[in-house]
Amino acid sequence: MAKSTSVYYCSNCGFESSKWMGQCPGCKEWNTFVEEPVTKMAGRKTTASHNPNKAVYLRDITGTPEDRVSSGIAEFDRVLGGGIVKGALMLIGGDPGIGKSTLLLQVTRNLSLAGRKVLYVSGEESLSQIKMRAVRIGSDYRDLLVLSETNLSDIQETIQKEKPEIVVIDSIQTMYREDISSAPGSVSQVREATALLLQLAKQSEISIFIVGHVTKEGAVAGPRVLEHMVDTVLYFEGDRHASYRILRAVKNRFGSTDEIGVFEMRQEGLTEVPNPSEYMLNGRAEGSSGSVICCCLEGTRPIMIELQALVCPSNFGIPRRQTTGMDFNRVNLLMAVLEKRGSLQIGNQDAYVNIAGGIKVNEPALDLAVVSALISSFRNREVDPGTVIFGEVGLSGEVRAVSQAEQRVTEAKKLGFKRIIMPGANLTPELRKMTGIDIVGVKDIQDLRDAL
Q1: Residue 327 CB neighbours (<10 A)
Q2: Strand 118-122 vs strand 349-355: parallel, antiparallel, or unpaired?
Q3: Cα–Cα distances in Å, from 58 out to 55, 285, 316, 325, 357?
Q4: pLDDT tens digits, residue range 107-160?
Q5: pLDDT for 170-205, tens place per residue?
Q6: Which residues contact 37 (CB under 8 A, 6 or more apart)?
Q7: Which end of the chain is more exposed for a tag (fewer CB within 10 A), N or C?
Q8: Distance (Å, rounded) from C-alpha 367 to C-alpha 390?
Q9: CA–CA distance from 262 to each of 250, 253, 259, 301, 366 (Å)?
């Protein structure tokens, strides 16, 4: 017999509770709990016709780990770990209008042109609307199968009939199963719809992309179990009103989660940015204090970014601090180190730190550039525009080593920079022998002030 009970879920973050609560303990939002019916099946006896899967030795399993399908977009393949894995279930999230559907439509076009059978399922647009968007970003879509449907039973029947290699579901919040009484987009519907697609992907070895809406905090809407069920979770970052987009892997069972893909939104769709450093430094102001170039590392890719700081006397009793693109608490910590170890009286100063271009960076190698930009703005003295600064700063004022320093120096030299200020612990004999660029190693903040 089936036993019907009710469970309460937070519609914002998916927190589960046996009773209704006014405030969600997970995301601290108010009045977000909704009631969802849950049917628990009584235990059943094992019959003779039930044939469970047998355990096999790992050495007996055949298959090549490099059997991937290229999407035709190098930046997209980089984030996925080298291409699309057969039978993988991938989730793409991002703010409305960021370019999720546009990117997947371009990917499906490239795959269909390469001879792959692709099915694009949309629950938010009609067939004519999909055609209008397709014509805007490209013209050759003659071999792409398109379906406008929200009933998962009909979608499953179409997949089993057409037998495509790649399927796109746009979006998972619009899909529903008839055997579940709740409305589309509810926690139960999203969870069960994803479970059905996961079963389809693994049994039929079909690669499935699902688009997920996000909450105002930026997380995928629905239960947290959704991210645990899929193989890969990708997030689109960036301001929808800006031209750049960053695709980042938060979870990837078949590759690294450190890689990023950089795109530019144009009239004809998303275009790859093969050299993000040149793109991020475009339009840099010359001759201004508080502007420093730093080399950060995203996966295996070094990227040059411009870090800006503005330090000015405070008009209030409590100085104001504001950051854009990096950790707020880290800037406060570095300002305390500057005052204590660097003998710089900035405790009564307002401080604003910004990473130009809107990119978000969370790497210790950014510390030395932040300190340099704060000193430059406070003293109102310009840092040489041909200088690149990177390194981690400790609480004692020491400059600590960072990873892959040689790769950062090589990137800076390739882009035409003439001087590098970096941790002295990273100065290897190979770097000392490098010609065409002046490399300065610093041990603490005092050495940094002398080098600046």
Answers
A1: 14
A2: unpaired
A3: 9, 58, 66, 45, 47
A4: 999 999 888 999 999 998 999 999 888 888 876 677 889 999 999 999 999 999
A5: 989 899 998 887 778 777 888 889 999 999 999 999
A6: 4, 5, 6, 181, 182, 188
A7: N
A8: 7
A9: 15, 21, 10, 11, 20
